[in-house]
Predict the 3D structure of the following.
Amino acid sequence: MTTIRHTLQQEVFQPNEERLLAACHVEKLYKKKKASFLCIVSNTKPPLTISLIQIKQSEKTYKRKRSWNLVELKSVDGKNVLADNLEFDLHLDKLYRWVASSAQERQLFIITLWRQSSKYFLKEKPVFKNVPETWIREDVLTPENKFISSPILTLENDITEDFKAITDKEQEDLSSLMANCEFAISNAEAFMEVLARDLSLLDGENVQYLLASEAKVESLMNLLESAVDEADKIEQRLDEYDEILCHVKETMEKMEKKNSMISTVNKNNILLLKELEIIIKQLDLPRKFQDILDDADLTNTQGLKQAIEAGNALRDAMNCQLDPALLRMSAVQEQRKKFEKYKDKFSRAICRQLNNLFIHYGNHKGESDRNTEGLVLPQHSMVHKELIPYTELMHWIKIMDRKASEALKKVYTDSLGKLYDRDVHNLFEAAKEKIAPLGQVSTPTRNLALLGLDREQWTLEVISDDRQRYEIIIEQVLTQLEPVCLQEQQFCVTFFQLDILSPTSKNTQTTLDGMGAEVNVLPSKKAEKQVHEEVRNMMTSLFSCLEEELLSFIGYIEKYDPFHCMYVLVHLNQHVMSAQSSFLSNTLASVLIHMKRTLDRFMQLQIDSIKDCKIARKSKCGILPYVLNLEEFAKLADVLLKSDRRIDLEKWYIRLVDTMIEFINVHANEHHKTPPQVIKMENYHYLYSLLSQLKISVLDNQRKEAKQKYNEALAAYVTHYFGRPLEKLNIFFEGVQAKVASGVKASEISYQLAFSKQELRKVISQYPGSTVKKGLESLYKKVEKHLSEEGLVQVVWRAMQEEFIRQYKMLEDLIQQCYPGSMIALEFTIDDILNFFSDIARSH
Amino acid sequence: MSKKPTSQPALHKVIMVGSGGVGKSALTLQFMYDEFVEDYEPTKADSYRKKILLDGEEVQIDILDTAGQEDYAAIRDNYFRSGEGFLCIFSITEEESFQATQDFREQILRVKNDENIPFLLVGNKCDLEDKRKVSFQEASERAKQWGVTYVETSAKTREHVDKVFYDLMREIRARKMEENKTSNGKGKDKNKRKKLKCTIL
């Protein structure tokens, strides 16, 4: 850079008698690579002007590109006060934005600019913005600040010494001086003389002053010296103090350390004490409790209360939460052994007492005496009431001594189980007695009530009053079971804590049973299931004979009433739904399933009996027994059909009636006298009518089917039996129709040998009115003989009359068609027929 | 469950007569099964049987529901003959059906040859009051003239349905008891006795 300056000065400015003050290598902002030099230049000859000149370098030569007078400069914007910033703006005739190539150059350039402008423009200085303040101070280039030493600067300093602009004050002083010597301008010599005289005067004065001050300086020096001595002394003393203080500091530090150690020890002691207190508090068992545990009196309420209190205290002590490490303390171990002893003793005492009580209550009579009317299952709430005070002890045992608790539970179920066995047995025996005195059931023959058997063969000895009685008895029995079971279940759950799977509080460390310490937490659903299971197990062992007795009782009813499954099912179902005791509900449900199977067997038996039905060898078949019996059956089954379990029956009903419809058809062919159509007609008619009356909705299809089969059978019977009275005529004309069908013209039939007029006359002559009448009469008699129900006789006869008239008309028509003009006609008229009908009607 | 029925309950045979579409079957079905069938399907002949309690006595009613339209009246002779009591039905909304009762009455009397045969004149469809063509007065007068009771019924609303059947059965029962008295000792079987009587007449 220095070389470039030099070159610039030499080549560009020297020839013009100009001097370079500062130069800066710049580029235009945003237009890189157009490098040029901004120079601050002053001319060497007055009048002094400072210019800003932009020099462009091309090849090795430098050219002036633009130049401004410094006066034109309005503002300088440094953009940023940071030293390493390279940008700056100059506002001249317009705004020029530059980027310097080095921070140093920029700084120097701006400083120079400021100095020049502050030096030469007294009035309108350009504004300097965003420029470090140190750059634009008067002393900016004083030796301390001058970190740049450049030849140009020194050069510049010389110049400024030569050319010092006169300041305003100097100007004023000068002018006032001139004014004092009015002659100054007119007589310069005189003026100079005055001035020289003044000067020498002042010089002399100055020297005098200088000499006078020497003595003063000397005394001042002395004073200073003594002051220094004093200061030295003070310093020495301070050093001594300092030494002393150092000692003190060391001592203090040592003391501090000791202090903190003491407080730690103290804290530890307090903690230890606290811990010990806790342990002792937890493991301490008051003397009073120890005595009680030693010799527990569980027979009276006072003793019991104390025992419970003591037991709880022991439990709390044994179950307290201690740090495992503390358990190793021999004192703790010892205390625990002591507890263990108390526990064993106390637990034995409880077991003894409860055992005695359980066995004692095993002989309990129950509250209600047996001589009351009706069936009663005695309740044992007294037992429960008396055991309730022991509940807490039982819970205690459960937590503290699982084995003992299980054993107690077993004793309870055994002894109370016996009690309940007896009660339940008595109840059912009484119930059986009520159904029929036991001795009377000497004939073990089962009552038969099968659809397939004749009603006469039903050995059903039960009348509906009896059945109502049975229903009441079974309802009573079931009702009796409910409260007893519920009460017992509730008692067991609370007394034995069956609703809690794991003991309430864990006795992990202190009990030495070594039972699985951590009971893994079961998911609630599973846990619930297990609780149910436990309750059910206990109840099952308490009421072990219940299901068996109930089944035997139902079996007993069955002997008297095979239809028992209908109402027993209904009552059981109601009780399964309403039973609050989960055990009873389950037991009844399993009996219910048993009953459902009984029903299924019973219904299957009915269906089989339909299939095996034997047709009575009577002259008239009439209504088949199973069709006849269906009405009674439906009456007996109604109770089930109206209950919640109707679906069980409906399913069977459909099968039953389907079987009937199927087997009416089969059995119709088995009677030796009555024609099958009649059997079908009568039975389907009866079945249809019955189903219409019963209105069992699931059998609607069967009802429609029966009606259809009835109509089919009726039509079959009427047409089949109808051929008889005019058989030969029918045969003759069937032949005629066959001929016509084979292509012979109707009018030419009479030329056929077999169907000549002669032949026709012969056939017709065989049916005079009297014969026809006889034929109709015998037909009517036959119909009457076949049919068992008079209503249907009328229906059939009406259909036959209609059919006969239809056939008569058909024959007449055929004669008209095939034998026109032959004057041949049947020997009886329609009026004759109607008269025959009326005569037949009148004849019976 | 009762033991084997020792004796069959008394059987009363009722015949439903009247023109087509007056509601004979509707009345019968309503009485038998408590149902009302809207669809009209002409009947040829249907027989129904039901056990009921008549004034505390178990009886069996045998109903023969007959065809309203018949090509030849003589066809009816046979079942008229078998009937013990008649419900002669017309529709109060149809004048012709009322007129036809006259013919039915005559035929029944002729066949049964009995002026006092149990017989009820029944005006059905009384729920259709706004379509009434036969006045109560008119029908009552005819009944009075015949010496029978006139009842209006509705098979649809079941009004008086039971009443006509029960009233008729009471008449039949009274009639049979009367006959038993007059011919006591001649035989317990009513049918046989009746048959005998018929031949005499």
In short: Chain B touches chain A through 34 residues (CB under 8 Å).
